[in-house]
Write a structure and sequence with these properties.
This protein is an alpha+beta fold and 85 residues long. Helices cover 24% and strands 21% of the residues.
Length: 85
């Protein structure tokens, strides 16, 4: 796990602000839902949406440049790309 060297304090309500630089790098928008879990004594934040960015399917999605894409949409994208060339 990569560390950034940034330290944030928890406020009175238990909130922590995620630095804007990290949100930009990961393309995390305002009001976006994140899932919170514990893994090996660490608090882990992940996007709550675990489906294809195009159709929402959660079946067999793969990560492509930080976005989840299902096989069906990946094939359609490949077809569009081949047609554009």
């Amino acid at each position: 796990m990569k560390t950034s060297g940034i330290i944030r304090r928890i406020d009175d309500l238990g909130r922590v602000v995620i630095p804007v630089e990290m949100r930009r790098v990961l393309d995390i928008g305002e009001r976006e839902a994140l899932s919170i879990s514990l893994e090996n004594n660490a608090i882990v934040l992940r996007r709550a949406h675990a489906g294809c960015v195009f159709c929402g399917s959660g079946k067999d999605v793969v990560d492509f440049r930080g976005k989840l894409v299902c096989p069906r949409c990946a094939r359609q994208l490949a077809t569009v790309q081949a047609t554009a060339e």
